[in-house]
Structure formats: structure tokens, C-alpha cells
Amino acid sequence: MNKRKNIKRSLLKFGFLVPAIFFFGVSMLIPFLLGIQVSFTSWDGISQKMNYIGLQNYANIFSNSDILQPMKNTIYFAILITIFNNAVALGLALILNKKFKGNSKFRLIYFIPTCLSTVLACFVWKFLYREVFYQVFGINSLIGNMKTVIPALVIISLWNGVAINMLIYLSALINVPKNLYEAAKVDGANVFQRFRNVTVPLIGPAFTTCVTLSLTYGLREFSVPMIATGGGPARSSETIAMYIYKHLFEYSKAGYGQAISIVFMVFLLIIGKTVSTIFRKREVEM
């Protein structure tokens, strides 16, 4: 009887997973496998015939200098967003972890930009850059300057999404035992020493998660530069994701675009795993 009950329970649990597995297979796995097939062709994305050309698309990726500019832009954006997203998120979390009047209201205020769509956020900041910054400070549009466009896009992305990492850090800080701070204070540790020796080691897992998420998000960024600048001026804000999009839908080079996307996906997996492993080791050492 117990054996039958266990089998029934197992089947019931598996039954709840079936819709999710089906959705994953239809929406992600099948398109991914079809994408691999397309990457070995010269398909233009429209015609019904696919001409197989072997590894030519993959060879073109490493011989085409046209991809270097989007690659540099992507790396630059990813580094900036990783540094500033985590610095600002941790700073806000440390402030909100303190008890003061209106704490809950400030948490809500900081989270509001995240509830807005990326499209709306981009249009708001485009208006600020082009109109307000010029009229108030006399500064020309930051997104119209090749030297400042990436930092300007980082500000938009930061404003729109910093609250996610802030909540992760805040939840980690709340779980740090208060008696450890009291013990460190009794031992003569100042604020910086308490942060370095108590806070940092105990929020290590949250730091690993936030850095990994920020870095992988920055590397695959598409919507902010696409909406705010379209990759301009002179491709100075074009990212790898935009480069893939243009080859898939604008240049009628679906095979080449799919090849880039697959190579880029493998690159993201390697980077994400490497960063996560490095920081996990640091957690143990701390």
C-alpha cells in the first residue's frame, strides 16, 4: 500500500511539472535547436530554402572586424553596470537597513523605477538628456556624444533596475545577526572594520548573486541602447545583442546572426560560471 501511495505521489508531483516542461520545450528548447540548424546555413530569414554552408558562418565571426566595435561597447557597458549597480544597490541597502522614520516609504520610492517599462524609462531619460540637462546645466545631450553615450545608457539602466539588487542585498543584511556587530563594537572595531569583517563575509552569497546577474545582464543588454540611441552615434552604443538583431532582421543574414547568438550564449555561460565559481571560493576563504 505504501509503495502504491509513493508512486501516486510521485506521479502527481511529476504531473504538476508537465506544463512547465512542455512550455519550456515549445518556447525555448525547440527554437534553440532550430537555431543551431539555421546557423549552418546561409538562410536569409524569409525564403523557404536553406543552403547548408557548414562552419562558414562561425569562421566569419572570427574573421569579421565589423564585430569588434559592438564587442568593445558591450564589455564597456557590462563593466560599468556591474560596478555601479552593485555599489549603488549595496549603499541603498545599507541605508535602508537602518531604522529611521519613513524607512518603508523610501523602500517603495526606490523600487518605483523598476516597475516602469524600459521603454518609458528610456523616453524619460532621453527628454532629460536633450532638454533639461541643456537648459539647466548647459550640457549637450549625453546620448549624442560618442564619448559619453555608454555612461549615459548605464545611468538609464541603473535607474530602471538597481532596486532588484538592492532588495537582494537588503534581505542579506537583515539576516546578519545584530549581536555580531555588538561584539565587534565591544572589541573596538570601527564602522569600516565592522563592515569589512562582519558584513562583507556574511553577505557573500548575495554579492556573488548580484555580481553574476549584473555582469550577464550587462553583456546581453539590448533594450536600453536600442530604444535610447538605436546604436548611435556612429555605432558607438551598438551592443552584441543589437548586432545579432540587425543581422537577423535587417540585413537578411539569419544564418550568420544565429551563429553569433550561439557563440555569444556559450560565452555568457562560461563567463557566468567562471565569475560565480571565483566568488564562491572567495566566500569560503572569508
UniProtKB/TrEMBL annotation:
Q: Where is the ABC transmembrane type-1 domain?
A: 71-275
Q: Which UniProt keywords apply?
A: Cell membrane, Membrane, Transmembrane, Transmembrane helix, Transport
Q: How does it sit in the membrane?
A: Multi-pass membrane protein
Q: Where in the cell is it found?
A: Cell membrane
Which GO terms fall under biological process for this protein?
transmembrane transport
Entry's Pfam families? BPD_transp_1 (PF00528)
Please name the SUPFAM superfamilies in this protein's record.
Answer: MetI-like (SSF161098)
Membrane-crossing ranges are 12-34, 75-96, 108-129, 149-174, 195-217, 255-272
Q: Which GO terms describe its cellular component?
A: plasma membrane
Note the superkingdom of the native organism.
Answer: Bacteria
User: So what family is this one in?
Assistant: Belongs to the binding-protein-dependent transport system permease family.
Q: What is this protein called?
A: Sugar ABC transporter permease
